[in-house]
């Protein structure tokens, strides 16, 4: 019985951790979309990649840090372990991601 409770507690901890990670990333992307602009009024997305120290991973498959590419990379790209989709998948349990 104790091992079941310990396993449940550990799984609950990691589920909450991955969901918190996804929520924080979504908040950062939302704030950047709403407020971040350079001197000419153009939205900057490179700082998001730099903030997460993902420049090497991001630029290995993308040429520029455009809004569409950065948002896809951080929301839907399951090959990016820090994306929202990957975090939610990990929160669901230790299953193999496609």
Largest sheet: none
Nearest-integer average pLDDT = 86
Q: What is the tally of beta strands? A: 0
Oligomerization:
single chain
How many structural domains can be distinguished in the coordinates? 1
Which ranges are low-confidence, i.e. pLDDT below 50, for 5 or more consecutive residues?
Answer: none
Instruction: Decide which structural class fits the backbone.
Output: mainly alpha
How many DSSP helices? 5
Task: Describe the structure in your own words.
This protein is mainly alpha-helical. It has one domain. Helix content is 64%, strand content 0%. The protein is built from five helices and no strands. The model has no long low-confidence stretch (mean pLDDT 86).
Question: Which key features would you list for this structure?
Answer:
mainly alpha, 98 residues, elongated, single chain
Can you give me a brief rundown of this structure?
The protein has five helices and no strands. It is an all-alpha fold.
């Amino acid at each position: 019985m104790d091992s079941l409770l310990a396993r449940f507690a550990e799984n609950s901890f990691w589920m909450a951790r991955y969901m918190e990670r996804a929520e924080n990333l979504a908040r950062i992307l939302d704030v950047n979309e709403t407020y971040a602009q350079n001197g000419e009024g153009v939205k900057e997305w490179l700082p998001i990649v730099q903030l997460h120290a993902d420049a090497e991973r991001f630029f290995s498959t993308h040429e520029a840090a455009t809004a569409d590419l950065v948002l896809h990379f951080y929301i839907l790209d399951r090959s990016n372990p820090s994306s929202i989709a990957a975090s939610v998948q990990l929160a669901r349990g230790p299953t193999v991601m496609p």
